[in-house]
Amino acid sequence: RQSTTSINNNEEIGLSRIPDQPLLPTFSDKIQHELLMGNPEPVMNELIREAADFYMNVYPQLTHGVEYKKIGIALINEYPCLACEDTINPHGLITSRLSARIRNVRRKMRTREQKCQMRGTIY
Fold first, then answer.
1. So which domain of life are we looking at (predicted)?
2. Residue 84: C-alpha distances to residues 3, 13, 34, 61, 97 (Å)
């Protein structure tokens, strides 16, 4: 049983291209204040936006769920108020919102690039 667990862990580690302890963003003063007060809800959208911008620059290769999970766990370890207490995975909400934000930003960037390429084409 232990070998199966270690194989699965090794497979997950193989997918991850970020460190086990990922870097954490330095949030704006407004977000930092709410996090220290234990009240992230009013700034959650801004927090996700700032975190997504940070991680897209620091880890541009970020694509796998295990990578987002590492980031979610690291953020919750630093800011316990971000944890979802009613779920099996306390990092689930922050992880899913962050990955959705990054996917949306990348999709918009691809769409803009395609439009620019089409404009550059001579008809």
1. Eukaryota
2. 31, 25, 16, 27, 12
pTM of the predicted model as reported, rounded to 2 decimal places: 0.79
One DSSP character per residue, 34-57 reads HHHTT--GGGHHHHHHHHHHHHHH
Q: What angle do CA 6, 9, 15 make, to 5 degrees?
A: 145
Mind listing the pLDDT tens digit for each residue in 71-118?
999 999 999 999 988 778 899 999 999 999 999 999 998 888 887 877
Total of domains in the chain: 1
Which residue segment(s) compose the domain that 47 sits in?
A: 2-120
d(CA 96, CA 106): 15
